[in-house]
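[audit] Reproducing an earlier prediction to check determinism. Same input, same settings, fresh worker. If the tokens differ from the archived copy the diff job will pick it up downstream; this log only records the rerun itself.
[audit] input (574 residues):
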Amino acid sequence: MKGLAKAAALVLLGSILAPPAAAQQGSNLVTGGLMANRDILMPSNFAELSQTQFNFGTARSMAMAGAFTSLGADLSSMAINPAGLGMYRHNEISVTPLITMTRAQNSAEAWGSNSSNRFAMSSFGFVFNLYEGTGRTTSVNFGFGYNRLADLNYSTSFRSTGNVGSIADMYALQLGQDGLVADDIMGNNLDWFMHSPGLWPAILGYKAGMVDYTEHPDGGGSWWNPSWIGSDRDNIDIGHYAGVESRGSVGEYDISVGANFGNKLYVGATIGIQAIHQELQYTYAEDYYYPGGSAERPEGVAPDLRFQQLWSKLNQATVTDGAGVNLKLGITYRPIPALRIGMAFHTPTYYSLETRYQGASLGLAFCNDPDYNPGPDDFPRPDRDGYIDCPGESPVLASNQWSFTTPARLLFGLSYSIGNRAVISVDYERAWYNGIRVKETPAFAYAPSDYNDSFRNDFKGSNTVRIGAEFKPLPILALRAGFGYSGSWLTQEDSVYSSPLAREITYCGAGVGINLSRTVTLDVAYSYQKTTQSSYWLYYADLYTGGSVEQNSSALYTTDYARHAVALTLAFRF
């Protein structure tokens, strides 16, 4: 399974770090994982930014799981089916603040924070009645508003012990495969922008003492290796520590028009202007412990290293900002007063993105040989029996332009009313994630065709079902509940990818609506969402030479998310 998964990952990721063919000498290095390739956007990033979660919006929509393709007279209709805007018979202004609480569930032991709580705006806007008549056209309404489409606030952190592999193994292979020597990246000789940003973590690893350029034990010149960790891994316990913190959201500003024809046919259109903002912090750390010990070498100290790495830590930060535009067209038909049939089509959103990237590391090593005092040519040079502080920080890689299109969506909905007491609504949505297309990439990233081949081969259309119900025991009181399920958009759900990808999303909601007066309503909703994700590596480095492959990777991990949200909508009708 591991070999097959990495073969699939080769198609998914390519190898931007591979040197020119003349320098490869028949070998090819493929690297990836959650802590690699952070300088560029990966297919998993585009998939995450393409998600649309209609369990946000107004509190009424949230409580009913967003099953509003055939329902209407709600600000969320502008983002789901704009034909619902034609059902308004009055003007309305509403605002919906939101609190989200996200919890991560990891397959490994918790290390730091696995929760993220945020206050945000879920929806706000207004609907204005442009025309009211008695002829064929009953009414025309105009709406403007904001609807939150996806929440990108989460935090995960975990650790595992008993490992023998190190991310330094990947760094050594990267530096060697690129043909670098220590003088190329030492001191003032280092020009960051002369090297691929994908190499920057490896260069920082060198500055932090994780890898060194030393004489090969078998002769044949110098080579990159984790000399301060040691090549004999049979008697070492390496701890892996990983953390990801994300802040941001995907929101949409909607400009909508909806028309009502004889209270039987409703049509509408929305121009959606979407905005993305996501800040990501990646933390990866290792510590190194050597069991055993003697009078000369206490437990935890390497028996044969003049320099010993005690721990290492790498931080990486990315910021993505973007704006996009799409068009939504919708229609709802009412064959009988109690039944509504709705359909909507969402064009792909065309996005223009800008990313910024920076890596920073800090290493701490211990000179554990009391009889060794480094000479003036040794670098770095600790105090006798002292510590080496090896900070390093890359410049900011800014103003990198990307553009891509999200999946097209087709929605169908049925709803049935039981007098003025109850309504039940069912929605089906098809989203073509295999239709994501990357249009523009920076010079140092993969070509758009590489990304698009990945989407064609590794992604598929996803199916979503939403069910919502509302019951009014009293004219002024409404009780609501809803359930939704989104299936996988991965062609092989059990495959392992460099970064976690959602395999399925389940959510449910409940809420209460109260008419405070003839013109003021208050809605409260609670929503729970569970996202199950694919397995992933923290890092891997596969060196293909001829017909053989040398594999270096972390263990496999999984991270699932549970998101709780509470929203309150205050609406004024006039």
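[audit] rerun output stored. Observation attached for the diff report: Residues 1-25, 373-385 have pLDDT under 50 and may be disordered.
[audit] end
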